[in-house]
Amino acid sequence: MTNDHVIVLPGGGYTRISDNESAPIVAWLESLGMSASYFAYPVNTRHPAVLEAVRGEIRARRDAGADRIALLGFSAGGHAAGHAALAPGASARERVDLVMLCYPVVSMMLPTHQVSRETLLGRDATPEQRVATSLDLLVTPDAPPFFVWHTAEDDAVPVQHSYLLGMALAGAGVRHALHVFARGGHGLNLARDAGGARQWTDLCAAWLREEGWLP
């Protein structure tokens, strides 16, 4: 039997760590019978500090006995999760086996979510820096499976971010699920009172079962 662990990366625009996307998410995962923890990655700091910190947390969980590691990220934490999974240069101990992204920041080329981009890269980020931190431009055929969800009404991190990632995953032949719900704004976390978006936890649990992470 494998020893699996999920690292939760809350959102917060790279300026703070969101409380409602941390402990409540760990509690939900544990209710499914999974081992989980949330990681308070460094904020208000420039790239590559976050990437290096997340990779360090992955190594620590492997040293603690985890055979398989998944990342679950929200908004800017979704960017941090996707970046750790897709950026080149990861060692074997730093590679992740599964990724779940909730209304993620994906592209640093789009004009939207400016606060995440400027906090991570600065206002004078070069085109090369923006390309190197855009998840959709980092997808390769050996990327791990992805589960992604977003809402069409999200005006903080528009749904185009997830569409770009979905297209890149499809183009590279990476196994993935992409769900877009018609209603709901940004920062829904468990989305218990958010109409159709409340389905995301059941859909994610079903996907985890299909991927062999739940019985």
In short:
Helix content is 34%, strand content 15%. With 215 residues, it is of the alpha/beta class.
Q: Your description of this structure?
A:
With 215 residues, the chain is of the alpha/beta class. The chain has a single domain (4-210), classed as Alpha/Beta hydrolase fold, catalytic domain (Rossmann fold, 3-Layer(aba) Sandwich), CATH 3.40.50. It has 7 helices and 6 strands. The protein has helices at residues 23-31, 49-63, 76-86, 114-121, 127-132, 160-172, 200-210; strands at 4-9, 36-38, 68-74, 98-102, 146-151, 176-181. The chain has a 6-stranded parallel β-sheet with strand order 2-1-3-4-5-6, with helices on both faces. Helix 2 (49-63) crosses helix 3. The protein is globular and about 50 Å long.
Descriptive labels:
single chain; 215 residues; alpha/beta; Rossmann fold; six-stranded parallel beta sheet; 7 helices; 34% helix; globular
Helices and strands in order:
Layout: E1 4-9, H1 23-31, E2 36-38, H2 49-63, E3 68-74, H3 76-86, E4 98-102, H4 114-121, H5 127-132, E5 146-151, H6 160-172, E6 176-181, H7 200-210
Parallel strand pairs: 1-2, 1-3, 3-4, 4-5, 5-6
Number of strands: 6
| Strand percent estimate | 15-25%
What is the CA-based Rg, rounded?
16 Å
Q: What's the shape?
A: globular
In the CATH hierarchy, what is the architecture at level 2?
Answer: 3-Layer(aba) Sandwich
What is the count of DSSP helices, taking H or I runs of 4+ residues?
7
Profile the largest sheet: 6 strands, parallel
CATH homology group: Alpha/Beta hydrolase fold, catalytic domain
Count of structural domains: 1
Return residue spans where pLDDT drops below 50 for at least 5 consecutive residues. none
Span of the ends, CA to CA? 12 Å
By CATH reckoning, the class would read Alpha Beta
Return the CATH topology.
Rossmann fold
Approximate helicity band: 25-40%
Mean pLDDT: 97
Order of helices and strands: EHEHEHEHHEHEH
